[in-house]
């Protein structure tokens, strides 16, 4: 047996078990051993029969006084009934259905640990379908008399189970595999030197510790090791990728202070400290002949557009020295048409004083600015736009993913910007980055021969500098893990003059009063967003009617009962793209007073006149998500308001919503979410591609930094080849990440 042995070869499996294992994604011995316990039970935490109540999950130590199996009349099932007696002499009935073998396993007089739920029938309590394990130990008056070794074995693992496979089955299967001697020679992909410096158990030990801990601290040591392993290999892959990019060259952008001031002096404000710091990180990077790979993180409204514009300005005005062709170009990719249009409009305005030409490409329309025929942008054909992009006439091209179409070529792409970068797939991001490698056949040779390669070998590729942007504040440790290939600049302050959103948690009896307040503000011409947790009303014949407002239903109710004078629109993800765009534009043009939507309405959409937002069912959203929703009303200098309604009144909900009211910025909330909501549920691990276990560990900055440091050293010193086992695992993880 080894790690790759298919589980089927290790013992007989029923069809039901095979199906269940498949559902859990378990095929090999390795898969099973990496199916870690969700948590650990402690069987010293047992109950006495005199104290149990209906509905309770309990552990009992008891002796079987009598046991009988019989057929039930109605369904022809076997039912086993037993009477159990604990050390106090109290008794309770235990019942099992469809498990005819139980009477054989638990003969009269035997003692066992039972765990199950207490149920009630006709006024009598009984223990239902309990799990049990024989423990032939004396039940003294003082309680069960555990031997010393028994005491050590009180910790037991609890696994995620599915129909056909119980936690107990996994427990026994794993236990059997762990006694196999292939473990003694189990190769460990984490180098020993690294394990030793952080006190991490070997793979074989860790597997035993995590499945069969004698003490909780064993399990913790094992979990730490596996978390380290995951973060370490993620880092190896990301940093390797970064280094590959760094092997390429890049155009040196002119970042003279004087040049930069030409741009900043046209702005009606001065940059915040955060903006200046971010810009200085960026100018440092792009004035070198290595491509920048930087992530700019900042809350919605923190002013990222200006940073992107300043960087674009510097790039578009750089004329690579000693060359007889045009200036450098910029590609700016945004996740939606609305956002791309908005950026295009902003850029037209910002670039006008410098006569820098800006283009827009989306799936539908193409525009260019400035134009000979009108003051504003002109609509042009896609072919025309492509031609002007390829000959360098368009200096900044803004667009949706239409930008990365195979038929779009640049003359000299110097800078690639990706807005809301997490909304693009890995391949889309890579496609933008490698754009310059693609040339139409005519221009290929012409350009290749002209590229300036100061200080670079002749065969070096030229890549654009990359500026990624994200308005989703995530904890620093998580950012370091999932963006290991990027350098990080964080802007955690808002431009001055911005009013803090007045956030109110509204109690049910205050709803009317809040609606009056909103009506008064609406009367001054301001607009309102209403966010609901679901799109449609539930079908009462099919679903349990959850207490959850739907966008469609709430819009009707508001019109009918609350704001009859208002014009109200609905926006949600099931609508067609054109329909969504139209509604959003009409809302921007103030054709509606109220927009009722689900949480998916685009982040970053700018409607300064909308200064109020209602969030229904707020407990269903993560804190970071709530914060993003609230960011929509922070777009003007008027006082913005956020009204939060929660259906659940648990202590946890209250604590989280209070944090939402009080937090200074999104980063604070992201940290809070991670610490208190449980990393697993935080923002959906799927989104970040990080396991529950690693998420848990990511709370621990020391561990993340250690894994990052070790990975960096190995990549920097080119040591992958020195550790073949590590290299194998690295290659495996890398190919998995590329499949995303
Ligand atoms: P983000 O893209 O980060 O969500 P934006 O770049 O759209 O934010 O900026 C939001 C608003 O803040 C814009 O209207 C912008 O003109 C304004 N703004 C940006 N920087 C400053 C600043 N330093 N001082 C005042 N206003 C600013
Ligand atoms: Mg933005």
Structure, explained:
- This protein has 740 residues and is of the alpha/beta class.
- A 9-stranded mixed β-sheet has the order 14-13-12-15-11-16-17-10-18, sandwiched between helices. Strands 19-24-23-20-22-21 form a 6-stranded parallel β-sheet, sandwiched between helices. The chain has a 5-stranded mixed beta barrel with strand order 2-3-4-6-5.
- Helix 10 runs parallel beside helix 11 and helix 20 (623-631) runs antiparallel to helix 22 (666-677).
- Adenosine-5'-diphosphate binds next to helix 11.
- Residues 304-305, 604 line the site of magnesium ion (MG).
Task: Note the overall shape.
Answer: globular
How many strand elements? 24
Radius of gyration, in angstroms, nearest whole number: 32 Å
* Contiguous runs where pLDDT drops below 50 for at least 5 residues: 445-450, 679-685
Secondary-structure class = alpha/beta
- Major β-sheet strand ordering: 14-13-12-15-11-16-17-10-18
Largest sheet, strands/sense/barrel: 9 strands, mixed
Assembly type? single chain
Helix segment count?
Answer: 26
Give the distance, in angstroms, between the N- and C-terminal Cα atoms.
31 Å
The whole-number mean of residue pLDDT values reads: 87
Bound molecules: adenosine-5'-diphosphate, magnesium ion
In percent, how helical is the residue content? 25-40%
Strand proportion, as a percent range, falls in: 15-25%
